[in-house]
Write a structure and sequence with these properties.
- By secondary structure, this protein is of the alpha+beta class.
- Helices cover about 35% and strands about 30% of the residues.
- α1 runs antiparallel to α2.
């Protein structure tokens, strides 16, 4: 359930596997700890509101983290979604002209962000909330051709 079954094509090697960012799980865990620790400091009863919100956020984060998986190979970028019925969305790296990464200050600290694929034959594709975003961008960028064939040379 957590690691999706992926069989590479002959001659294809996996460069990096990543998942969706687990920020909701971390935030939910911090809120649960806050709800459990504050009664000891203030002398009040356990704050069930904070514990409930934390549990909901942690469960939402776990579901989102385990639902998405991203794979970069030397031939394509693959987005796998689902649990039992897994959908595959793939982009051939030959069709990608360039890749960009957008990160704000907090995203740089956690190495997450929005990876955007630009190219011929595909629409601009944005992948949001991806973990290890800079490594994925660098893996895709390393597979792009340095000297692509010119359009009029064919």
């Amino acid at each position: 359930m957590l690691k999706k079954n992926f069989i590479p094509e002959p001659g294809e090697k996996v460069l990096i596997r990543s998942r969706h960012d687990n920020g909701y799980m971390l935030a939910g865990s911090i809120i649960i700890l806050y709800g459990l620790i504050t009664p000891f400091i203030s002398g009040m009863n356990h704050d069930l509101f904070f514990i409930g919100v934390g549990v909901l956020m942690a469960l939402f984060g776990l579901i989102k983290w385990s639902y998405f998986e991203y794979i970069v190979t030397n031939l394509r970028f693959i987005k796998l979604t689902g649990y039992y019925y897994v959908q595959t969305e793939q982009y051939i790296l030959e069709d990608v002209e360039h890749v960009t990464l957008w990160q704000n200050f907090a995203d740089k600290l956690w190495d997450r962000g929005v990876v955007t694929l630009h190219g011929i034959g595909i629409r601009t594709k944005k992948v949001r909330g991806i973990k290890n975003a800079s490594r994925i961008k660098n893996a895709i960028h390393s597979q792009l051709s340095v000297k692509p064939d010119h359009y009029f040379d064919k």
